[in-house]
Amino acid sequence: MVVIQLKRFTAVALLALMAACSSTGALQADTSAAGQPPIGSQAWYALVEAKFPTSDGHGHGPDYGSQEWCDVVYFRMHGKHAAEPVACDQQWLEFVDSQISK
C-alpha cells in the first residue's frame, strides 16, 4: 500500500514539474517587443531583412546571424562600415531589435 502511494506521489510530482517547466518556456519564448517574433528566430531575421536589406535582391547575401550579416546590418543602419567587426552577440541582436521599430 505504501509503495502504491509513493508511485502516485512521484507521478503527480513529475506531472506538476513538467507543467511548470513548459509554461515557463512559453513565457521566455517571446522576449522581444510586443507583436514581434523572438529575437534570433527566422521570422525575426525576416523582419530585420525587410528593414535593413542584406541581400542583392537575387537571393544572394550573408547567412543570417553570421559575422558578415552583422557587419552588413551595421552598414545599412549607419551608412558606413564599422571601424572593427561588429560584436555579433546577443547584445548586438537586441540593439538591432530596438532599431526595427524606429
Describe the overall structure.
The chain has helices spanning 2-29, 42-51, 67-78, 90-100. Helices cover 60% and strands 0% of the residues. The longest helix is centred in the N-terminal third of the chain and has 28 residues, at 2-29. The chain folds into two domains: 1-30; 32-102, no CATH class. With 102 residues, the protein is mostly helical. It is globular, with a radius of gyration of 21 Å. The chain has four helices and no strands.
Write the layout of secondary structure elements.
Blueprint: H1 2-29, H2 42-51, H3 67-78, H4 90-100
Summarize model confidence as the mean pLDDT.
Answer: 76
Structural class call reads: mainly alpha
Uncertain segments of ≥5 residues (pLDDT<50)? Answer: 9-32
Based on CA inertia axes, which overall geometry fits?
globular
Order of helices and strands: HHHH
As for the number of domains, it is: 2
How much of the sequence lies in strands comes to under 5%
Distance between the termini: 65 Å
Largest sheet: none
Could you tell me the number of beta strands? 0
What's the total helix number? 4
Helix % is: 55-70%
As a whole number of angstroms, the C-alpha radius of gyration is 21 Å
Quick rundown:
With 102 residues, the chain is mainly α.
Q: What brief labels describe this structure?
A:
4 helices, 102 residues
